[in-house]
Specification:
Structural class: alpha/beta
Strand content: 15-25%
Strand order of the largest sheet: 1-15-13-5-7-11-12-4-14
Shape: globular
Largest sheet: 9 strands, mixed
Number of strands: 15
Helix content: 10-25%
Radius of gyration: 19 Å
Order of helices and strands: HEEEEEHEHEHEEEHEHEEEE
Oligomer: single chain
Length: 260
């Protein structure tokens, strides 16, 4: 085994590296995105159906079948999720190079701003200020926006935070996403239900995280949790979607390797 992998294995077994679960529990109570009815149907609620559980319906095994949307709970957005990324031959969950599922993570803490203003937007200038303090974001790395919004995901209404004017959740500005695309990052992730801010339908372009990420054959992560346990730099994120045929996305088990 190469020395680097030996060191990693030793650090994991000794507790020098800790595994942080960045995934929300997936089940019937998982908050799901609500779409305007004139645009599209909503994702149906998640269902878990028992096939057997020991006893007379087994008799030795337990298993379930599931009904859920690709973009349910903590999930991965592939380029084919958006019209701007539809033509990439490696843009579906079964064609993306698996090398892209493991990468360094940059965690930008916007929790104080989001607590004060649910419509807070991280701008390009905000990212540059973070880089001045913590170091430059590299090509092929994840950029994750910590807002502590995951603390709301036990309550769908609180998590979606919508009123008569629409949803109010933090996210990136269009110039923020453009800047990250110039830096050739691997992708962008948030603790909110989607990669865009709640008000992003009114931005130019609309839904810039989706629009620009997938136009550049990059990836999105949504409904992440526990980003407060990750350092600004130094974590490795594992975010692997199910290998769904022609999949536009997938629920994931997002895991971060962090120094103990």
């Amino acid at each position: 085994m190469p020395a680097t992998l030996t060191q990693l294995a030793t650090a994991l077994s000794s507790g020098q590296i800790r595994v942080v679960d960045c995934t929300a529990t997936l089940g019937p109570k998982t908050p799901l995105l609500k779409l305007p009815p004139e645009i599209a149907d909503d994702t149906p609620p998640i269902e878990i159906h028992q096939i057997s559980k020991y006893g007379d319906r087994g008799p030795f095994w337990a298993w379930n079948w599931l009904k859920l949307g690709e973009h349910s709970g903590t999930h991965f957005d592939a380029p084919h999720h958006w019209i701007t990324g539809r033509d990439y031959p490696d843009g579906a969950t079964d064609t993306i190079d698996a090398q892209n599922f493991v990468a360094p993570a940059n965690v930008i803490d916007c929790s104080a701003q989001a607590a004060e203003n649910p419509d807070f937007l991280l701008t390009a200038e905000g990212v540059k200020a973070w880089e001045a303090e913590h170091g430059e974001i590299g090509a092929g790395e994840w950029v994750l926006m910590r807002t502590d919004w995951c603390k709301r995901n036990h309550d769908e209404a609180l998590y979606l935070n919508a009123d008569e004017t629409g949803p109010h959740t933090p996210g990136p500005s269009a110039d923020c996403v453009r800047y990250l695309m110039e830096k050739k990052v691997l992708g962008w992730g948030t603790e909110c239900i989607g990669t865009d801010a709640g008000a992003a339908g009114g931005f130019e372009p609309p839904f810039p995280a989706h629009n620009l990420l997938h136009a550049n054959n990059r990836y999105g992560l949504a409904s992440l949790v526990n980003l407060s346990e990750l350092p600004p730099k130094g974590a490795i994120l594992i975010a692997a979607p199910l290998k769904i045929e022609a999949g536009t996305g997938s629920p994931i088990r997002a895991l971060a390797l962090v120094p103990a």
